[in-house]
UniProtKB/TrEMBL annotation, chains A, B:
GO terms for molecular function: ATP binding; histidine-tRNA ligase activity; identical protein binding; RNA binding. It comes from Glaucidium brasilianum (Ferruginous pygmy-owl). This is histidine--tRNA ligase. L-histidine binds at residues 126-128, 153, 169, 173, 322, 326-327. One of its GO terms (cellular component) is mitochondrion. CDD domains: HisRS-like_core (cd00773), HisRS_anticodon (cd00859).
Length: 495, 495
C-alpha cells in the first residue's frame, strides 16, 4: 500500500534526523508528521481480526429497544411503588460460598469469576439469595422492597423466546413475621396489576403450596427421600403429558406405579374455593397435617383474593410445583393464555421461602419471606414483536424543539438560543453543522419525531422574535423571544 | 487422617492471622479455604460459618442510600434527555479480546470470568469501549446516546472517598462527523448543568487537548516514543508537586532535564481565551502543526462556551493530561473546589476519541466521538455524608396513605378499601396484621413519612364515609367513600 510505504519512509527520515542530532524543532516537526500519517492509517493493522459480537446469550439494547424496555420498567416500578416498596441494590457478584447450596442442580449454571488473587466470586444467579444474604448481614427482620437488576445463568439461550444468559429480574418481596397470607395475597395482586397494565392479553395465575404437594406425596405413598425429585418431575407437567411424567416417575425415579397413579389423580385437579373445600374433606389429604395446613392457608388466600377481586384469573392448580429448592409454602406462576404471540412460558413466578434467610444467619434465625419475580425479558420479547408487527413509530428521545436557522452564518445565534432553552429546562437539539440546510433540519425532525422547530433568521433577530414551526402541520408562528419557553411548554405538554 | 490434619493446620493458620490482625481480605481468603476443606471432609459444622459480607470493594445500597442515588440519577438523566440523547445498554461482560489493548497499563485491573467452557469473557472496565464496539458492530456512524451502568475495576478501593471496585458510570457521547467543537462544547455544557443542578458547591472544569500536549512534548524535545509515558507523569500534577513530577520524568522515565524544565514552564499555565491567544503567538508552539490545530480548536471551543455563558467555570489548563490511551483531541475533567466535603478528586471527565471505533471496524473506518462520564459514586459519597450531617429525613417510599382501622375484625374492610385505592392508582399500604392497634398504625406513618391515614370503622362503614387523618396536623375529616381517591390525590399532590 502506498500509504504504508509513505509511513515507513517518514519513520526512516525521523530516525536519520535523530541519528544526526538535528535541530530538535526540526525533529519534532517530522515526528508530528509521522504521528499524523500513522493516525490516518488507523493504527496497527494486526489488531483488527476481532470477532465483533456480544457474548453468547447476551445482547445490546438499541435505543428503540430501550424505549420499549423503559415502558415496561415504568409500569412495573409504578406498581411496586404503589404498594409501598422501598428499593435496594446489591453487587452483581457475590462471594462464591454465598451462592453455594442454594439452587440444587441448577448450581452448575452459575458463572464464576477467574481466581485473580483475593476472594472467589460468582455472578448472582437470582436476586432472592442476595436479598436473603442482605437481610441476614444487616439483621433486618422486616422490609418490603423491590430490586430490578440483571442476573446471570449459563443456560442454553433461546433468544427469540426471551431466554438469555444475562437477563433482568424485577423482584418484589415482603420479609417479616405477619399474619398468614396477607403479604402472599398482595404479591398475587401485584402480578395481576402488572400483567393487566401491560396489556399482554389474557393470563392465568396458577397457585399451589409446597405443603399441599408434600402432603399429597405423603398420602400417595412417596418415600420422604423422593419428595424433592418427584416434585421436579411434577414441575414438567406444563411441558409434557401426564403419561410421560408418570413414566419418568416410575422408570427413572423408581416410584411405585400405584403411588404414581394416585399422584396422577391429584395433579389433574384445578379450580377455586370449591376445590379447596373438597380437598379439605378428602379422607386421605385431610388427615395429613402439612396438607391440611396448606389447604387452610389456601382457603384464606382465596378469601383475600376475592376481596381484591382477582379470583377470576387465579387457579388453584395441584400440578404447579416450581423448580427452586427454597420454597416452603405458597407458590405461584403466571402464564399468558393467548397464542397470537410467541410462546414464552411463564412471565411471573414466586412463592414463600421462610428458611432462606436462616441459612445465612449464624444462629439460624429465620425471617419469613414471600415474593414475586417478573420475567421482564419474556414480556419484552412479546412487546418488541408486537411493535415490529404494528409498525408503530417509537420515539427514542423526548426532544421538544430543534433550534434551526434558514440562513447561513447563524451558528452563534442558534447556540445562544439553545443555551437559553436548556437553561429553562426545555429539551432541545441543534444540528452540529455551521451552516445546515433548512430542509435537512426539518427532515431531522421528521425522522426523530421532534414536534417543533424554533427558527432564527436575520429578520427574526431584528424583530426580537423566533419563528416557531409545528412539524406535523407546517404551521408557522412568530413568538416573542421572551415568550418562547412558555409557548414551547404549552405546545408540548401532554394532555 | 491426613485430611483432618490439614484442616487442623489450616485452622491454626487462620487463628494466627487473626491474632496478628492481618489484612482482612487475607484472613477471609484463608477462612474460605478452611471452610472448603471442612466441606470436603463432609462435616456439617462448616455450613453456617459464612463470612457474611459483600465482595471486597463493593457494597449494598440500603433504601435510604437508594433514595439519594435516585435523586442523583434523575438529575443526570434529565440533563441527558434535555440534550436529546437516546439510551442504549450493553452486556456487563464482553469477549475478553474486545477489551484487550484499549486501556494500556490499566488492563491488569480488568476482571476476567473463569473459563467454564465457551468464550473467554471479562467484565466491562468502562462504558466507552463497549460503546465503540457497539457502533462498529452495528455500523452506526451517527448517534447521541447516554448509558448508565456499572463498571468493574480490580483497583485498590477507598470506599469513604467513593472509590469502589463496582461503580456506576453515567456516560453521554456524541458520535459522528461534524463541524469542529460544537459537540465538544455541548459536552462541557452538560457537565456544567449537572454539577450546578446537584448543588455540589463551587467547581472548575479543566480543559486541554491531546494535540496541544503532544505538540508541547515535541517542542520541548521529548522523543515521540516517550509521549505517552510522559503524558502519564504530567497527569499526576493534580496529586503531586511539580518537583516530584519532574524527578519522575528525569529519573524513572529518562527524560533530559532540559526537556523536563521546558515542560515545566508550559504545564503551570492556565487561563482562558487570553492564554490561548498568547500560545498561538508562542514562537515554538505556533510552529508545531498539532499544537496549532489544537490551539485553534481550543479557541473555537472557548468561543462556543462564551455563547453558552459558562467560561467562568472553565479553565484551559496545560497540566491536564487524563490517563486513558484512547483520547485524541480535547480532554476535560471537573473538580470540586470546596474543602468542606471529603476530597474525592474529579467528579466528571471525558474527551474526544476519534480512533477507538476504527480499532473495531474490519476496515478501520473511523467514527469521531466525544463524550463525558459523570463520576456518580464520588458525587454520591458527598451527598450521603451531607445528608448524614444534616440529619435530613429522607423518605424511602412514596406511599400516600395507610389504610387503617380503629376497631378489631376489620381486616376484610381494610383489604377491600386498599384494593379500591390501588386500582385507582393511589400509593397505599396496610399493616399485615389481622387486628393492629391504631397507635401502631399511626406510629408506622410517623416512622415512614406516610402523610395520610384512611381509617375505617363500624360507624364510617354505616355512613358510607372514610375518616381521613392528616398525620402531621392530626386533623381528621370524614370523606365520602366515592370522593376519597380525589381527596387523597388533592392532599398529596406536590405544589
Amino acid at each position: 500500500m502506498a500509504e504504508e510505504a509513505a509511513v515507513r519512509a517518514q519513520a526512516e527520515a525521523v530516525r536519520r534526523l535523530k541519528q544526526d542530532k538535528a535541530d530538535p524543532d526540526e525533529i519534532a516537526k517530522e515526528v508530528t508528521k509521522l504521528l499524523e500519517m500513522k493516525a490516518r492509517l488507523g493504527g496497527d493493522e494486526g489488531k483488527q481480526k476481532f470477532v465483533l459480537k456480544t457474548p453468547k446469550g447476551t445482547r445490546d439494547y438499541s435505543p428503540k429497544q430501550m424505549a420499549i424496555r423503559e415502558r415496561v420498567f415504568n409500569a412495573i416500578i409504578t406498581c411496586f411503588k404503589r404498594h409501598g416498596a422501598e428499593v435496594v441494590d446489591t453487587p452483581v457478584f457475590e462471594l462464591k460460598e454465598t451462592l453455594t447450596g442454594k439452587y440444587g442442580e441448577d448450581s452448575k449454571l452459575i458463572y464464576d469469576l477467574k481466581d485473580q488473587g483475593g476472594e472467589l466470586l460468582s455472578l448472582r444467579y437470582d436476586l432472592t439469595v442476595p436479598f436473603a444474604r442482605y437481610l441476614a448481614m444487616n439483621k433486618i427482620t422486616n422490609i418490603k422492597r423491590y430490586h430490578i437488576a440483571k442476573v446471570y445463568r449459563r443456560d442454553n439461550p433461546a433468544m427469540t423466546r426471551g431466554r438469555y444468559r444475562e437477563f433482568y429480574q424485577c423482584d418484589f418481596d415482603i420479609a417479616g413475621q405477619f399474619d398468614p397470607m396477607i403479604p402472599d395475597a398482595e404479591c398475587l395482586k401485584i402480578v395481576h396489576e402488572i400483567l393487566s397494565d401491560l396489556q399482554l392479553g389474557d393470563f392465568l395465575i396458577k397457585v399451589n403450596d409446597r405443603r399441599i404437594l408434600d402432603g399429597m406425596f405423603a398420602v400417595c405413598g412417596v418415600p420422604d427421600s423422593k419428595f424433592r425429585t418427584i416434585c421436579s418431575t411434577v414441575d414438567k407437567l406444563d411441558k409434557m403429558p401426564w403419561e410421560e411424567v408418570r413414566s419418568e416417575m416410575v422408570g427413572e425415579k423408581g416410584l411405585s406405579p400405584e403411588a404414581a397413579d394416585r399422584i396422577g389423580e391429584y395433579v389433574q385437579l384445578h379450580g377455586g374455593l370449591d376445590l379447596i373445600e373438597r380437598l379439605l374433606q378428602d379422607p386421605k389429604l385431610s388427615q395429613n397435617k402439612l396438607a391440611k395446613e396448606g389447604l387452610g392457608d389456601m382457603k384464606l388466600l382465596f378469601e383475600y383474593l376475592t376481596l381484591f377481586g382477582i379470583t377470576g384469573k387465579v387457579s388453584f392448580d395441584l400440578s404447579l410445583a416450581r423448580g427452586l429448592d427454597y420454597y416452603t409454602g405458597v407458590i405461584y406462576e403466571a402464564v399468558l393464555l393467548q397464542e397470537e404471540t410467541v410462546r414464552v412460558g411463564s412471565v411471573a413466578g414466586g412463592g414463600r421461602y421462610d428458611g432462606l434467610v436462616g441459612m445465612f444467619d449464624p444462629k439460624g434465625r429465620k425471617v419469613p419471606c414471600v415474593g414475586v419475580s417478573i420475567g421482564i425479558e419474556r414480556i419484552f420479547s412479546i412487546l418488541e414483536q408486537r411493535v415490529e408487527a404494528s409498525e408503530e413509530k417509537i420515539r427514542t428521545t423526548e426532544t421538544q424543539v430543534l433550534v434551526a436557522s434558514a440562513q447561513k452564518k447563524l451558528l452563534e445565534e442558534r447556540l445562544k438560543l439553545i443555551s437559553e432553552l436548556w437553561d429553562a429546562g426545555i429539551k432541545a437539539e441543534v444540528l452540529y453543522k455551521k451552516n445546515p440546510k433548512l430542509l435537512n433540519q426539518l427532515q431531522y425532525c421528521e425522522d426523530t419525531g421532534i414536534p417543533l422547530v424554533a427558527i432564527v433568521g436575520e429578520q427574526e433577530l431584528k424583530d426580537g422574535v423566533v419563528k416557531l414551526r409545528v412539524v406535523a402541520t407546517r404551521e408557522e408562528v412568530n413568538v416573542r423571544r421572551e415568550s418562547l419557553v412558555e409557548e414551547i411548554r404549552m405546545r408540548t405538554s401532554r394532555p
